[in-house]
């Protein structure tokens, strides 16, 4: 993110002070949404905001505010103009006057003049509230098998037979769609996995680039973000689980290496947020020349949600492969998450179960607090850890779930954060993706704890959006996955044995990535009849005989599925 010296603009921090200044001076706010990994953001700083006359115009006629979208995602979600940079002009009450994306010097001059004319003519009356912030709650509906069928139909209809993946352009990897289709149309899924690996995977350094601008996967955007890489480790690990093929294991393994080296923040034992593209031309060099090129910069900030995705990805990969490196780094990051970023899991502290957005030692300014996305991703990481690593983390998982329900539950679903803050932050959003992620995590928590209350919250949340489910795009394939798991099962493997035993490891490796493995089940009231050293498989009302060996367990799964 450009500094004041680089841009010549006198940037203010996001906050009520900036809006009060705008009201007192009777000026619009110029809100610049940027990210450290965003090449076009740095380019706009160098070419537009650094131009002296433009900077003087901005400083004299506007109140300029700079926001890093990773550090303040609620601001991003309200004012994003479709990508970054976003250049947004606001009235002092936070309403939107107009907005654009990247603006070169000529475009910026025209927009500044236009906004000043608009302001002089209409003032705050020209402001508008973005539609998602003024719509009623989404239409509720019944959960049926048609939701899963409709999503599969969406994926089939938008599938790119030529280039792989879904849609025209831009092309994103869509890990949730990859995982949904893996169980329901494996050929389509694997061809899309192959396209993502062939086009977005960095063969030299490991890790996946963020997206490609064109339908044929050309126009690569070379930034690497922790959240998408963590999600893709899990997706490719699940493809390996279903196929046993190294062509899916290898990208996952190389991405684990990238995350645990390039993106590892050793100062706080967790993962850094992103790596910028660096010199774009360097990505086309041969290995020898690329080794001599400057290493692209890394944003060392440690954010809870992306770390939770990385932890889940690494634990999933380790569960299928016994990879010690993946397990060890996941454990370290999980300990940091539990110790430094989650409010005390025991006691009555008001912060109990609240997930902080950023590790305090890695930020130099205030960041967001109590975000639904962080709560959901953290809960999912904790349920995965309870299933694969240590059931004792369920106490923390309960605390996170309970805090989310207590603080963010509203009208049968969840809002994105508290109704507080500058600009339009007092207006809450009801984000579908975070609601779905939380519902799935609550469903898994219900299975792991035997506490049906969490399942009912998951059901209510999914029902709250079901009336619009026929319009959901492939980006929200996880909704159909969650509905399917709620209605049909999920497949549950209760293992009355220790974590890491042969029986537990075999349960994790049975080829259904949507299953829930409950280790140490003999200690749970709901499995008190399960003899120690055995396992049982459940799917809905169906239940297998007890199994004592991995072979018997595999047979038990087949008996339930038939």
UniProtKB/TrEMBL annotation:
Domain of life: Archaea
UniProt domain Thioredoxin: residue ranges: 1-117
Coiled coil location: none
Source organism of the structure: Natrialba taiwanensis DSM 12281
Pfam families assigned to the protein according to its UniProt record, in alphabetical order: Thioredox_DsbH (PF03190)
Comp. bias intervals (Basic and acidic residues): 280-293
Region (Disordered), start-end ranges: 123-145, 276-295, 540-562
GO process annotations (BP): carbohydrate metabolic process
InterPro entries hit by this protein: 6-hairpin_glycosidase_sf, 6hp_glycosidase-like_sf, Ssp411, Ssp411-like_TRX, Thioredoxin-like_sf, Thioredoxin_domain
Protein name from the UniProt record: Thioredoxin domain-containing protein
């Amino acid at each position: 993110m450009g500094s004041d010296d680089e841009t010549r603009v006198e940037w203010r921090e996001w906050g009520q002070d900036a809006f009060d200044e705008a009201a007192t001076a009777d000026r619009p706010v110029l809100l610049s949404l940027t990210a450290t990994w965003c090449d076009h953001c740095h380019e706009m700083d160098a070419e537009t905001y650094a131009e002296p006359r433009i900077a003087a115009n901005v400083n004299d006629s506007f109140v300029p505010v700079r926001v890093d979208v990773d550090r303040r995602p609620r601001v991003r979600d309200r004012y994003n103009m479709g990508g970054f940079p976003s250049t947004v002009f606001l009235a002092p009450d936070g309403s939107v006057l107009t907005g654009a994306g990247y603006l070169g010097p000529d475009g910026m001059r025209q927009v500044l003049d236009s906004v000043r004319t608009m302001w002089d003519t209409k003032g705050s009356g020209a402001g508008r509230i973005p539609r998602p912030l003024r719509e009623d709650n989404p239409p509720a509906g019944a959960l049926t098998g048609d939701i899963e069928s409709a999503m599969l139909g969406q994926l089939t209809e938008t599938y790119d037979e030529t280039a792989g993946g879904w849609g025209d352009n831009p092309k994103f990897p869509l890990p949730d769609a990859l995982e949904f289709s893996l169980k329901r149309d494996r050929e389509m899924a694997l061809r899309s996995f192959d396209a993502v690996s062939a086009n977005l995977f960095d063969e030299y350094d490991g890790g996946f680039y963020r997206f490609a601008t064109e339908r044929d996967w050309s126009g690569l955007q070379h930034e690497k973000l922790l959240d998408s890489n963590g999600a893709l480790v899990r997706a490719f690990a699940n493809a390996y689980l279903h196929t046993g093929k190294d062509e899916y294991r290898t990208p996952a393994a190389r991405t684990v290496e990238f995350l645990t080296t390039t993106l590892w923040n050793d100062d706080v034992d967790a993962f850094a947020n992103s790596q910028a593209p660096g010199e774009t031309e360097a990505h086309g060099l041969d290995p020898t020349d690329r080794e001599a090129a400057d290493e692209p910069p890394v944003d060392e900030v440690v954010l809870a949600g992306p770390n939770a995705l990385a932890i889940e990805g690494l634990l999933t990969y380790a569960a299928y492969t016994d990879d010690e490196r993946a397990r060890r780094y996941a454990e370290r990051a999980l300990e940091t998450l539990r110790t430094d970023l989650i409010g005390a899991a025991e006691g009555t502290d008001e912060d109990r179960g609240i997930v902080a957005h950023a590790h305090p030692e890695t930020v130099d300014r205030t960041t967001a607090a109590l975000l639904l996305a962080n709560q959901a991703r953290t809960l999912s990481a904790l349920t995965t850890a309870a299933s694969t690593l240590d059931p004792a983390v369920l106490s923390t998982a309960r605390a996170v779930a309970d805090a989310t329900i207590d603080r963010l539950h509203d009208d049968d679903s969840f809002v994105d954060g508290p109704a507080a803050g500058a600009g339009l932050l007092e207006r809450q959003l009801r984000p579908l993706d975070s609601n779905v992620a939380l519902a799935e995590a609550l469903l898994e928590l219900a299975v792991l704890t035997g506490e049906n209350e969490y399942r009912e919250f998951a059901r209510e949340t999914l029902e709250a959006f079901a009336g619009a489910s026929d319009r959901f795009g492939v980006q929200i394939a996880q909704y159909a996955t969650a509905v399917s798991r709620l209605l049909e099962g999920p497949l549950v493997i209760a293992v009355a044995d220790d974590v890491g035993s042969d029986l537990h490891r075999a349960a994790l490796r049975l080829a259904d990535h949507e299953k829930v493995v409950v280790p140490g089940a003999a200690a749970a009231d709901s499995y008190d009849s399960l003899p120690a050293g055995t396992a049982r498989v459940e799917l809905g009302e169906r239940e297998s005989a007890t199994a004592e060996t991995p072979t018997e367990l595999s047979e038990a799964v087949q008996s339930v599925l038939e």
